[in-house]
Design a protein that fits this description.
mainly alpha, 2 strands, ECF_transporter_component, ABC/ECF_trnsptr_transmembrane, ECF_CbiQ, Cobalt ECF transporter T component CbiQ
């Protein structure tokens, strides 16, 4: 996978969560999300317990609450959708502060907000404690199709390259006195986007030819073999295991 690649979601640390092998964390988060989604929406107390479990993980990983909450803003579009559900859903209606709201819509909004927020929070914690390169190695270890892992790897590697190319093009436009102020400037921006696409395509061809000349035959060599002990798997399974117990109680009670 080559050299490490830091990302904005990652928070460097030396906590027990950071030290876990990446594939154990990916599996734990996936299992946790599946359990959360399987929990009946009526068991509101269960979602509070899930939030407490994630807070405990964040505390163990030394991820500040502000860092986590700021990155939860990515779910704002889903929050807007959930807010609209009580107004547009059909079925039994109830008056709340003079507004006629759908009972099914209220439950649906709660379901989306609770499960969506917990899922995003778990994903943010995973990204906060695992570098992108380690995530790719973890996916490879979990037997994700190699082609998908390679595509993700190239996206990570060259995302910043393309962004930097776009920045240089913007600086070049501004150094020539260009400033986008209205619709009449869209043509220039469209030409810049086209030039960026052509440059990116050509760069991709050159990279592929360089790889083929070095013996690439459809698979990337595994440089680091990531393994996990039974104790590490047990430690990673604490979160989904506790969540599963809460889920079962939610269905029983």
């Amino acid at each position: 996978m080559g050299a490490g690649h830091a990302h904005k979601l990652y928070r460097h640390g030396h906590s027990p969560v950071h030290a876990l092998p990446p594939h154990t964390k990916i599996a734990a988060v996936l299992a946790f999300v599946v359990v959360v989604v399987s929990t009946p929406r009526e068991a509101m107390w269960a979602f509070a317990v899930y939030a407490g479990l994630l807070a405990l993980v964040a505390h163990t990983a030394r991820v500040p609450a502000g860092f986590l909450l700021k990155r939860l803003l990515i779910e704002v579009p889903f929050v807007a959708f959930a807010v609209l559900l009580p107004f547009v859903a059909e079925g039994e209606r109830i008056d709340v502060l003079g507004l006629s709201l759908s009972v099914n819509g209220l439950w649906g909004a709660w379901n989306v907000l609770a499960k969506g927020t917990l899922g995003v929070a778990a994903s943010v914690l995973l990204a906060s404690t695992t570098e992108l390169r380690e995530l790719l190695l973890g996916l490879q270890r979990l037997r994700l199709p190699p082609l998908l892992v390679q595509i993700a790897s190239f996206m990570v590697r060259y995302g910043d390259v393309i962004t930097d190319e776009l920045r240089r093009m913007r600086i070049a436009r501004e150094s020539r006195g260009f400033e986008a102020r209205g619709v009449r400037h869209w043509g220039v921006l469209a030409k810049s986007a086209g030039a960026l696409f052509i440059r990116s395509y050509e760069r991709g061809e050159r990279v592929h030819l360089a790889m083929v000349s070095r013996g690439y035959a459809g698979s990337m060599p595994v440089i680091d073999e990531v393994t996990a002990s039974r104790a590490q798997w047990s430690y990673a399974s604490l979160l989904p295991g506790a969540a599963l117990a809460v889920c079962l109680l939610g269905w029983i009670l």
